Amino acid sequence: MEQKQKYLITIVGPTAIGKTALSIKLAQHFKTEIISADSRQFYKEMQIGTAAPSQQELSAAKHHFIHHKSITDNYSVGSFEKDALQLLKTLFEKHNTVIMVGGSGLYVDAVVKGLDHFPDIDPSIRKQLNFDLETKGISHLQKQLKALDEKSFNTIAVENPHRIIRALEVSLGTGKPYSSFLNQGKQHRDFKTISIGLTADREIVYHRINQRVDIMLKEGLLDEIKALIPHKDLNALNTVGYKELFKYFEGEWTLDFAISEIKKNTRRFAKRQGTWFRKNENTTWFNYRDDISKIITSIEIEMI
Fold first, then answer.
1. Distance of alpha carbon 13 from alpha carbon 19, whole angstroms
2. Binding-site sequence positions
3. CA dihedral 183, 75, 247, 15 (to 10 degrees)
4. Helix, strand or coil for residue 83?
5. In the prediction, which pLDDT does 39 show?
6. Measured between alpha carbons, how far is 212 from 192 in angstroms, rounded to an integer?
7. 33-80 pLDDT tens trace
8. Binding positions for substrate
9. Residue 236 burial (10 A CB sphere; 0-12, 13-18, 19+)
């Protein structure tokens, strides 16, 4: 008996565009479950500042990889790839279609295409780069990466020290640009991916981001972050919305300035998300206000 084709529907797009709401509607239509590929929503201590699905949304469709880890856990994109593929194997035993939603492009690509593989790097290089970050600042590392690998400089999140140090250690340790190791060969997957993207005019995206930040503050973001101050040096908390308010609590910034920085940095993040997701030529893009029936029809045509 021929095995029925399995489909992974991925929903991508900038933050605050409405991916969660769409994923729930699709999960209900296809009578299936949702995998979250939003790396910030993995952590149970980070609920408000990551705009994780509400209890109502979580009960509207079964979700996986939401608040399943602690900020103290060492959980990498490689771990997520392994866990997600294992879960998909189980889910595809009872569903022909599964939904995956998230704004973390690297995590989406890890499941769909597989991760890029890099040679082992001498740990002393990372140690030196961390020392340079402490003593010379991130701008020094950004200039270094631009000189060694301009392609990576233009595509990775250069405000994220973890990402910039990773790109630099590979470039320095191998003598080849970090970008040259990317996309070296697609790994086989036992499912077909249908990629759906949500988009809107930039002004609308920015307005939705500003609104979302205001809502988070009303929901108690300050209290959430205050409780996390003892852990502020953990990598999971080196993220937009948290690092700015740590500066407020440390007395470096006023609250108004910290909030304006969250909005600005989230807008920058949304721009980088757009750059990343548009690299996939197989994504079908819809306006965030398009009727669900239009999106379902498009998906079902791809399934024929």
1. 7
2. 13-20
3. 50
4. helix
5. 95
6. 33
7. 999 999 999 999 999 999 999 999 999 999 999 999 999 998 999 899
8. 15-20
9. buried
Beta strands 284-287 and 192-199: pairing type?
A: parallel
Tens digits of residue pLDDT in 198-220: 999 999 999 999 999 999 999 99
pLDDT in tens, 96-133: 999 999 889 999 999 999 987 788 889 899 999 999 99
Structure tokens at 104: 């973390």
State which amino acid sits at residue 228: L
Q: Which residues are annotated as a binding site for ATP?
A: 13-20
Tell me the C-alpha distance between 141 and 41, whole Å: 28
Return the amino acid letter for 158: V
Return the exposure string of 142-164: e unless at least 16 CB atoms fall within 10 Å of the residue's CB, then b: bebbeebbeebbebbbbebbebb
- As given in the structure block, the two tokens for residue 152 are 């990576």
Whether 121 and 173 have beta carbons less than 8 Å apart is answered as yes
Amino acid of residue 293:
S
Give the amino acid at 73: D
Distance CA 165, CA 134 (A): 12
Going from N- to C-terminal start, the domains of the chain cover: 7-116+190-302, 123-181
Q: Which CATH number fits domain 123-181: 1.10.3720.10, 3.40.190.10, 3.30.420.40, 1.10.20.140?
A: 1.10.20.140
Antiparallel, parallel or unpaired: β 7-12 and 97-101: parallel
The rounded Cα 217 to chain-centroid distance in angstroms is 22
* pLDDT attached to residue 259: 98
Q: Which residues contact 170 (CB under 8 A, 6 or more apart)?
A: 118, 119, 121, 176, 178, 181
Q: The domain at 7-116+190-302 falls in which architecture? A: 3-Layer(aba) Sandwich (3.40)
How far apart (Å, rounded) are the C-alpha atoms in residues 18 and 114? 26
Task: Work out the number of other CB atoms within 10 angstroms of the CB of residue 220.
Answer: 13
